[in-house]
């Protein structure tokens, strides 16, 4: 059954992509997150949030931050475990979506997947899901000032959907309509991402603000590398799974 | 011979394949929502570092 083959394949593709993502994340990305959190003030670290629940009365800072007194994994092994599991689910989720689209197009003979084309699919995924939204909403480190999360989520979803649709039109539509693909990709940036007026970091110490700004720039670069590798693995492994098993199997079976 | 030609010959049911790939896609989107968008604090805290790494809007 097509559905179950896509689901089984997504477990493998998700695992492969999550391994790559987790390696870069734990080696390069997480240290920046931890460094930024250290400046956020003690009350925001997950371990202390657990202590607050024990009944310490406590003032919250100026952040509209949702860590609060809810459950959070303790720093160290527990936090690592939840991050690895989240990476795995993210890999499975993205590969399900990508392989569903690939399988449908491959079945209809609209594409003929090869490893090289798989890499291009992965790159398209990187552009649609990471690069395009990052133009308006750069990857964030903890402690950064930002507009309400709901507004950013709506713009993010809009941008990912329109960029994905735009890439599809650019590649699959006839030459006359390709300009419409470009228009779709530009539209979210013409609308504009939600922005804040004022400083990105509200820490009172200018030395800390300079340090956070430098951490932020470093974070944008390394998260771009992590996402690019993540998507190239998803694209390559998905194209292999679809062309060698998911769709091929269907043809033989029927 | 492309896979489409084969499909025509052997009669792959296209509406069933459309339904099944749509279901796989919906399943993937549901997982992504849970990892990247679910507003519950526990979900946010568990997936915190992943949300930041993938540049999902966070906090």
UniProtKB/TrEMBL annotation, chain A:
Keywords: Membrane, Transmembrane, Transmembrane helix
Region of interest (Disordered), residue spans: 51-70
Compositional bias annotation for Basic and acidic residues: 53-70
Coiled coil: none
Transmembrane segments: 80-102, 114-134, 154-172, 179-199, 219-242
The protein, known as: Cobalt transporter subunit CbtA
Higher taxonomy: Bacteria, Pseudomonadati, Pseudomonadota, Gammaproteobacteria, Cellvibrionales
Automatic annotation (TrEMBL), chain B:
Keyword Membrane: yes
UniProtKB keywords: Membrane, Transmembrane, Transmembrane helix
Entries under NCBIfam families matching the protein: CbtB
Lineage: Bacteria, Pseudomonadati, Pseudomonadota, Gammaproteobacteria, Cellvibrionales
Species for this entry: BD1-7 clade bacterium
Transmembrane segments: 18-38
Identification of the protein by name: Cobalt transporter subunit CbtB
């Amino acid at each position: 059954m097509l559905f179950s083959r896509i689901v089984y394949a997504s477990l493998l593709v998700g695992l492969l992509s999550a391994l790559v993502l987790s390696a870069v994340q734990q080696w390069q990305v997480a240290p920046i997150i931890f460094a930024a959190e250290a400046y956020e003030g003690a009350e925001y670290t997950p371990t202390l949030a657990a202590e607050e629940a024990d009944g310490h009365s406590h003032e919250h800072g100026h952040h509209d931050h949702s860590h609060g007194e809810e459950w959070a994994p303790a720093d160290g092994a527990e936090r690592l475990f939840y991050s690895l599991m989240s990476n795995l689910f993210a890999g499975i989720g993205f590969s399900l979506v990508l392989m569903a689209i690939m399988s449908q197009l491959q079945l209809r003979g609209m594409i003929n997947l090869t490893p090289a084309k798989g890499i291009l699919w992965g790159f398209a995924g990187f552009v649609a899901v990471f690069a395009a939204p990052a133009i308006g909403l750069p990857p964030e480190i903890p402690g950064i000032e930002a507009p309400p999360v709901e507004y950013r989520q709506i713009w993010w979803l809009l941008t990912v959907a329109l960029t994905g649709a735009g890439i599809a039109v650019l590649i699959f539509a006839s030459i006359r309509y390709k300009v419409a693909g470009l228009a779709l990709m530009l539209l979210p940036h013409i609308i504009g991402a939600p922005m804040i007026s004022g400083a990105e970091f509200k820490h009172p110490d200018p030395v800390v603000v300079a340090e956070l700004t430098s951490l932020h720039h470093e974070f944008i670069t390394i998260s771009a590398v992590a996402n690019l590798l993540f998507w190239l693995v998803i694209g390559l492994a998905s194209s292999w799974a679809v062309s060698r098993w998911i769709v091929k199997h269907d043809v033989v079976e029927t | 011979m492309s896979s489409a030609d084969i499909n025509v010959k052997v009669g792959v049911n296209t509406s069933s394949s459309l339904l099944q790939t749509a279901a796989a896609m919906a399943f993937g989107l549901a997982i992504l929502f849970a990892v990247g968008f679910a507003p519950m604090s526990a979900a946010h805290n568990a997936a915190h570092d992943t949300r930041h790494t993938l540049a999902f809007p966070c906090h």
